[in-house]
Amino acid sequence: MRRFTWAHLPDPAKTAFEAEFGRVRHTTTTPPGLTIGIASRVETERHTVFVKAVPIRSPALPGYRRERAVAEALPAGVPAPRILWVCEGGWLTLVFEYVEGRHVDLASDALAVMRTLTDMRDRLDPSPVPGMRSIDEKLSAFLAAARAALDGPAEEIADVDAYADVVERADLAAFTGTALLHADLTSGNLIHDGDRVWVLDWALSSLGAPWVDVALMVPRLTEAGFSPPEAERWASEHPDWRTAPAHALDLLAVLRPLFLVEKIRTGPSWLADGRREALRSHEAWARHRLRLCT
What we know:
By secondary structure, the chain is an alpha+beta fold. The protein has two domains: 6-97, 2-Layer Sandwich (Phosphorylase Kinase, domain 1); 102-289, Alpha-Beta Complex (Aminoglycoside 3'-phosphotransferase, Chain: A, domain 2). Helix content is 45%, strand content 16%. The protein contains nine helices and ten strands. It has helices spanning 11-21, 61-73, 106-124, 135-151, 160-168, 212-223, 228-235, 246-266, 269-289, and strands at residues 24-29, 38-44, 48-55, 83-88, 91-97, 102-103, 179-181, 190-192, 197-199, 206-208. The strands form three sheets. The chain has a five-stranded antiparallel β-sheet, with helices on both faces. Strands 6-8-9 form a three-stranded antiparallel β-sheet, covered by helices on one side. α4 crosses α8 (246-266) and α6 packs across α9 (269-289).
């Protein structure tokens, strides 16, 4: 997917930006992801900042507005980039402080990630951001995709009947809560600055039970080479993990591989290979939770 670059930002927004931060000397666009908005490191004569921008007409706009609301409300002590400036016209432009560092490698940085999640816990429950959507919205989309996958030939999944039984009994009530969840803690959204891990890109954040972010990371750890029991031992270091109902963890474990099956079938072809690779790791957690033979 092609991404907008700094060159696409309308001239009035560029002029206003330079009045605030100084003349632009160099820009670096991050690799494209699932949205096409500008995501660029911008060096000026006075500052280095990170700029995110999207046309007001873009279907991605709600995520940018959500990210702005979170950034403006996060309390001190949460390791997330501060929002420095906002410009809204034909585009919504968000300017954040730039965090120097590298994307985490979960194979070696998992403990540092856990320290950040634990440190944020008391600052995010109850949520400091008013009017946030519930995690049920994201999970309902996962559930719909899982049911669609089960309606088709889910040949990628062994023991599909066991998955179907969990989906049939799905109850999202266990996921509700008052904590602010990031809901997208991928390696690409976590930066290690050599001292601590920073959490970026809160566009998918939601309200839910405080253990949900940790649970959503378990299959990410299996992708990084952890066995499912090792990944759950990592998760158990978080104080709220013990409050997660077993049936809710079982549901999360089966939703992700079924979601991937459906998206491999119906989503963009350029994402299919990566999703097939992820499917194997995500299915490992489901088989562990359901005690299926490997």
